[in-house]
Design a protein that fits this description.
Strand order of the largest sheet: 1-6-5-2-4-3
Protein name: Macro domain-containing protein
Helix content: 25-40%
Number of helices: 5
Radius of gyration: 14 Å
Domain Macro: 1-170
CATH architecture: 3-Layer(aba) Sandwich
Distance between the termini: 19 Å
Pfam families: Macro (PF01661)
CATH class: Alpha Beta
Structural class: alpha/beta
CATH topology: Leucine Aminopeptidase, subunit E, domain 1
Largest sheet: 6 strands, mixed
Organism: Streptomyces albospinus
Order of helices and strands: EEHHEEHEHEH
InterPro entries: Macro_dom, Macro_dom-like
Number of strands: 6
């Protein structure tokens, strides 16, 4: 079965899907950008579960490229899958870590039984990943993934991001 890829301009916190992917920081305790928006709109239940994860398995933080799920709180989704994208640097090729965010998020989605998953453009905001390359890695990785997820939605915040992803999907 192949996964349908959908592009949407908009707000990931408004997506009625099984799981939304949070471009989290390693603390799992909220932050700026997508992470902050998900925590604000989803409410305190997400933060409570993230704190429990920090008190247990992820006491040192969630590693870059890994993924873990929590409730979605007040979001229209059922779950939030938190993943930590790599910061872009010209000194080191970290593309495999970025690809791992998508693969690991889909692996967690499969474990949850999620059929629809919404992704932001991981690492393409404050982590500085060039949008064209972020889109290429995202689309190639999702297309190559062995997953039961039926639909992956890329939720893009602005027109430039939407166009970058559209070029890769074509």
């Amino acid at each position: 079965m192949s996964t349908t890829l959908t592009l949407t301009r908009g707000d990931i916190t408004e997506q009625a899907v099984d799981a939304v992917v949070n471009a989290a920081n390693s603390t799992l305790l909220g932050g700026g950008g997508v992470d902050g928006a998900i925590h604000r709109r989803g409410g305190p239940d997400i933060l409570e579960e993230c704190r429990a994860l920090r008190d247990g398995t992820y006491f040192r933080g969630l590693p870059t490229g890994a993924a873990v799920a929590t409730t979605a709180g007040r979001l229209p989704a059922r779950w939030v899958i938190h993943t930590v994208g790599p910061r872009f640097t010209h000194q080191e090729d970290r593309s495999e870590l970025l690809a791992s965010c998508y693969r690991e998020s889909l692996r967690v989605a499969d474990e949850l039984g999620a059929r629809t998953v919404a992704f932001p453009a991981i690492s393409a905001g404050i982590y500085g990943w060039p949008m064209e390359d972020a889109a290429r890695i995202a689309v190639e990785t999702v297309r190559a993934a062995q997953t039961s997820v039926e639909e992956v939605r890329f939720i893009l915040f602005d027109e430039a991001a939407y166009e970058a992803f559209a070029r890769q999907v074509r």
